[in-house]
């Protein structure tokens, strides 16, 4: 597999907007002139239970379209965290929304109350997915903020571009704050796939 | 896209819909079914904006019936469906084969049989696409293995349907149908469009099923002044039902002859690293993605493995295998079914190489590592 | 009025091998002939007529006549016709279908075509039986009557086709018999002129199967029965339900104007094109 291959998985409950977030992330990668493949869990699962979007980003060609060894993982529900955190790469980025994830499987996870912070800031949870993108952008830099902003503007409903971009900025801010507070504390990922 | 780039993010189903439009499809009839519904949704929006027509029918039987009717009216017509809907279409698919009506069915395969696994990938309809309708008949089946190919193969399917006056099936799997990828599609002006041959003789001379030298008869549209008969009964050159053994033979044989004549053109096959290959993976659809990744690993470990990628499943491109059989020791056929193309490979191989299958029917796809492991076992 | 020989010369296919497949005494030819007279009276161009059928004895009607003819699969004439009409709205699309074809295997298509109000004229040849396969009971075989698959009597209740299509939303419903040929011509003419989905139910006779199994006599006896049971709507409207028992009300039963499908779709095309043109940058 290509050296540059980055695997991202966004997991949560149906309705949290993670598939949309996945599509935005994928489109942003294209704006950054990278190759990308995006897939998702689909059907009843996406409308209620654990749902997930996967994005593979690479400089070169991408063959296998599914994540097998995840570099960046976002969990926005306990079930999704339990179900989809198994194949995270050692040293990978692990972001959990503590609004819903109470049992965090590793101390190296970046714990942020994404949904409740969004609710407090905007009066609605609607933009939690975009806030999460801001966090991912700030934490990993796998795609540029400029490209993400362009993709957000392109993909959100007409007339909501401004507030969504505010949500993105808010997410970046949340990440900065968290990184500052964590102060570089590192821990080993307890899950390992052999 | 608001950003100027020749690349865009597109889903496989979306690419198939774009391919249909680029090929000049102006009529779609369908019924909602997972995992193909996006195609109907997109064309419901896009067709009227381009002056075309979309209709949501009461079921899949009605859907294929309506596209046959529209095709007889002169439209390039297409429907999209999935397992159970494809089953319902089989009788009228046979009608279109016998009456030689150009049309395209995109079947985004899901796990079966029956309701099966509606949102999970499968390649279980390969043999159904070949033999699903009753009676001897030829069929053309293309299978894309990337989002870009979903576009290009849908264009090809429409073109083949028009050229050969035959139904063409685009057999897509759920992975390709729902995957989003970076694609670069050609501008519409660069897309080849083939149109059915229409009669240019006076109507009183027109014999609707008299084959020209190409093996295909010119097809008049209803309303263009060539009043003729279309039937699902075996018919003579005038299109009238017949029980005459010679006329019946000419009718059925003629269906096969036109496909046999086009065999080379109809067979889309790509070869990757086959020049020095001693071992081959024969794959199609999403299995190509796993196979390519496996190939990279196997080559880096020094194994002479290549990939034969089938873009056409039917007619089965047997020459693709026959050409390489003398140099091959083993062939692996990974499929998301119990071994449907595997049997074809066995048939063509006729005992020359060692053939193994790798199958999966649990709603997940075969990973590159599984292919690597299997090939390593075979090449030990 | 056009003479029989003129009718044959003008509308029958000279290059088609005759005779036709129908039994002596069959009512299908009568209905087909009167359909041709109606078309002739309307002076329609043969090139503008598409005549579509399903399977069964009635399904064989199109092959003999010189129009754009389409003999489809069992029960599916209406969806084929729907696609054709939508593709070529300028065509006059006529559908010939039997009681089994229209209301059993094709019942779902029938009710949805009614609901859609697409401009197609459907003539349902109702002879209460599956004739071509040898006399099995159909959805219109009367309760208690016999057929080769219910020799001891039919225990299913029959559809009243005209009521069925009315309930499903057909905007024109006419009913007559193969005895009342002038009324038949007249109703078919009006049905063709009607903008929207029109149904003409024609009660007819199958002396070979239904008549023989149920001891209804020969074709003439069965025609006489049609004459006796038919009662025109204008008279029926003034009668008590009890008096109408065993009678068949004929005439134009429903006639109303509602938006037609193809015309409405033209509006959709216009709206979609306006939407496209108003967004030069393309939609999201």
Please name the CATH architecture of the domain at 6-113 and 143-159 in chain A.
3-Layer(aba) Sandwich
What is the mean predicted local confidence, pLDDT of chain C? Answer: 96
* Whole-angstrom Rg of chain C: 20 Å
CATH hierarchy, class of the domain at 6-113 and 143-159 in chain A: Alpha Beta
State the helicity of chain C in percent bands. 25-40%
Question: How do the strands of the widest beta sheet of chain C line up side by side?
Answer: 2-1-3-4-8-7-10-9
Residue windows where pLDDT falls under 50 for at least 5 positions of chain A: 184-194
Beta strand % of chain A: 15-25%
Basic shape of chain C = globular
List the helices and strands and how they pair.
The complex is a heterotrimer of chains A (194), B (380) and C (284).
Chain A: E1 6-13, H1 18-31, E2 35-40, H2 44-47, E3 50-58, E4 70-75, H3 78-84, E5 88-97, E6 110-112, H4 114-122, H5 128-140, H6 145-155, H7 161-182
Parallel strand pairs in A: 1-4, 4-5, 5-6
Antiparallel strand pairs in A: 1-3, 2-3
Helix pairs in contact in A: 1-5, 1-6, 5-7, 6-7
Chain B: E1 8-11, H1 12-22, E2 27-30, H2 37-49, E3 53-56, H3 60-72, E4 77-81, H4 83-99, E5 103-109, H5 126-131, E6 140-142, H6 147-164, E7 167-173, H7 174-178, E8 180-183, E9 229-231, H8 245-261, H9 263-266, E10 269-272, E11 279-283, H10 287-300, E12 305-310, E13 312-314, H11 318-324, E14 330-335, H12 340-349, E15 354-359, H13 368-378
Parallel strand pairs in B: 2-3, 2-4, 4-5, 5-7, 6-7, 11-12, 11-14, 14-15
Antiparallel strand pairs in B: 1-8, 6-13, 10-12
Chain C: H1 4-11, H2 28-41, E1 49-53, E2 68-71, H3 77-87, E3 92-98, H4 99-105, H5 107-116, E4 120-126, E5 129-130, E6 136-137, H6 161-168, E7 172-177, H7 181-193, E8 198-203, H8 207-213, H9 219-229, E9 230-232, H10 233-236, E10 248-255, H11 261-278
Helix pairs in contact in C: 2-7, 4-5, 5-6
């Amino acid at each position: 597999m290509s050296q540059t291959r980055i695997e991202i998985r966004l997991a949560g409950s149906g309705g949290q907007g993670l598939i949309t977030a996945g599509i935005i992330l994928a489109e942003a990668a294209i704006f950054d002139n990278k190759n990308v493949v995006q897939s998702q869990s689909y059907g009843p699962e996406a409308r209620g239970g654990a749902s997930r979007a996967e994005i593979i980003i690479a400089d070169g060609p991408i063959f296998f379209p599914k994540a097998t060894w995840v570099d960046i993982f976002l969990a926005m529900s306990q079930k999704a965290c339990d179900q989809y955190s198994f194949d995270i790469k050692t040293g990978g980025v692990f972001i959990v929304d503590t609004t819903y994830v109470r049992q965090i499987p590793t101390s190296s996870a970046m714990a942020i109350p994404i949904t409740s912070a969004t609710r407090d800031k905007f009066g609605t949870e609607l933009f939690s997915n975009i806030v999460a993108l801001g966090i991912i952008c700030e934490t990993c830099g796998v795609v540029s903020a400029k490209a993400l902003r362009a993709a957000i503007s392109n993909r959100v409903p007409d007339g909501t571009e401004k507030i969504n971009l505010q949500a993105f900025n808010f997410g970046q801010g949340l990440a900065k704050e968290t990184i500052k507070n964590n102060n570089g504390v590192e821990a080993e990922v307890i899950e390992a796939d052999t | 896209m608001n950003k100027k780039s020749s690349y865009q993010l597109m889903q496989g189903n979306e690419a198939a819909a774009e391919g249909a439009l680029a090929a000049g499809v102006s009529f779609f009839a369908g019924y909602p079914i997972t995992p193909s519904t996006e195609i109907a949704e997109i064309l419901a929006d896009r067709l009227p904006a381009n002056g075309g027509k979309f209709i949501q029918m009461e079921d899949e039987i009605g859907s294929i019936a309506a596209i046959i009717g529209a095709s007889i009216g002169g439209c390039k017509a297409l429907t999209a469906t999935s397992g159970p809907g494809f089953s319902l279409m089989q009788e009228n698919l046979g009608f279109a084969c016998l009456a030689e009506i150009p049309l395209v069915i995109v079947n985004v395969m899901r796990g079966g049989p029956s309701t099966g696994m509606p949102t999970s990938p499968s390649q279980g309809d390969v043999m159904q696409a070949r033999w699903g309708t009753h009676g001897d008949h030829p069929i053309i089946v293309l299978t894309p293995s990337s989002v870009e190919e979903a576009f290009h193969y849908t264009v090809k399917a429409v073109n083949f349907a028009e050229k050969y006056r035959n139904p063409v099936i685009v057999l897509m799997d759920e992975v390709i149908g729902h995957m989003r990828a970076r694609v670069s599609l050609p501008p519409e002006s660069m897309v080849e469009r083939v149109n059915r041959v229409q009669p240019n003789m006076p109507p009183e001379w027109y014999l609707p099923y008299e084959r020209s030298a190409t093996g295909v008869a010119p097809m008049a549209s209803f309303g263009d002044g060539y009043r003729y008969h279309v039937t699902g009964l075996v018919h003579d050159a005038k299109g009238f039902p017949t029980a005459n053994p010679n006329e019946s033979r000419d009718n059925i044989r003629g269906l096969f002859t036109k496909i046999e004549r086009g065999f080379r053109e109809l067979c889309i096959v790509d070869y990757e690293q086959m020049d020095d290959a001693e071992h081959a993976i024969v794959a199609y659809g999403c299995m190509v993605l796993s196979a390519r990744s496996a190939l990279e690993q196997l080559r880096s470990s020094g194994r002479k493995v290549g990939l034969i990628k089938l873009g056409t499943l039917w007619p089965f491109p047997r020459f693709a295998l026959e050409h390489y059989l003398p140099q091959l020791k083993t062939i692996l056929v990974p499929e998301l079914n119990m071994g449907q193309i595997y049997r074809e490979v066995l048939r063509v191989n006729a005992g020359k190489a060692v053939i193994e299958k790798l199958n999966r029917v649990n709603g997940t796809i075969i990973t590159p590592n599984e292919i690597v492991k299997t090939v390593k076992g075979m090449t030990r | 009025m056009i003479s029989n020989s003129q009718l044959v010369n003008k509308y029958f296919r000279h290059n088609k091998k005759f005779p036709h497949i129908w039994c002596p005494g069959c009512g299908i030819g009568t209905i087909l002939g009167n359909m041709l007279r109606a078309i002739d009276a309307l002076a329609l161009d043969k090139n503008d007529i598409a005549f579509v059928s399903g399977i069964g004895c009635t399904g064989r009607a199109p092959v003999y006549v010189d129009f754009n003819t389409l003999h489809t699969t069992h029960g599916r004439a209406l969806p084929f016709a729907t696609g054709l009409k939508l593709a070529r709205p300028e065509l006059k699309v006529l559908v010939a279908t039997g009681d089994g074809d229209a209301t059993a295997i094709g019942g779902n298509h029938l009710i949805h075509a009614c609901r859609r109000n697409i401009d197609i004229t459907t003539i349902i040849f109702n002879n209460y039986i599956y004739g071509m396969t040898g006399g099995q009971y159909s959805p219109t075989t009367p309760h208690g009557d016999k057929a080769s698959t219910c020799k001891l009597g039919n225990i299913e209740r029959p559809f009243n086709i005209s009521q069925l299509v009315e309930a499903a939303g057909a905007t024109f419903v006419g009913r007559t018999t193969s005895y009342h040929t002038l009324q038949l011509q007249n109703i078919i003419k009006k049905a063709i002129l009607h903008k929207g989905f029109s149904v003409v139910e024609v009660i007819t006779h199958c002396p070979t199967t239904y008549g023989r199994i149920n001891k209804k006599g020969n074709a003439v006896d069965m025609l006489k029965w049609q004459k006796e049971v038919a009662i025109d709507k204008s008279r029926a409207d003034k009668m008590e339900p009890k008096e109408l028992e065993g009678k068949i009300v004929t005439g134009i039963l429903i006639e109303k104007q509602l938006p037609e499908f193809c015309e409405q779709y033209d509006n959709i095309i216009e709206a979609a094109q306006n939407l496209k043109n108003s967004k030069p940058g393309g939609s999201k």
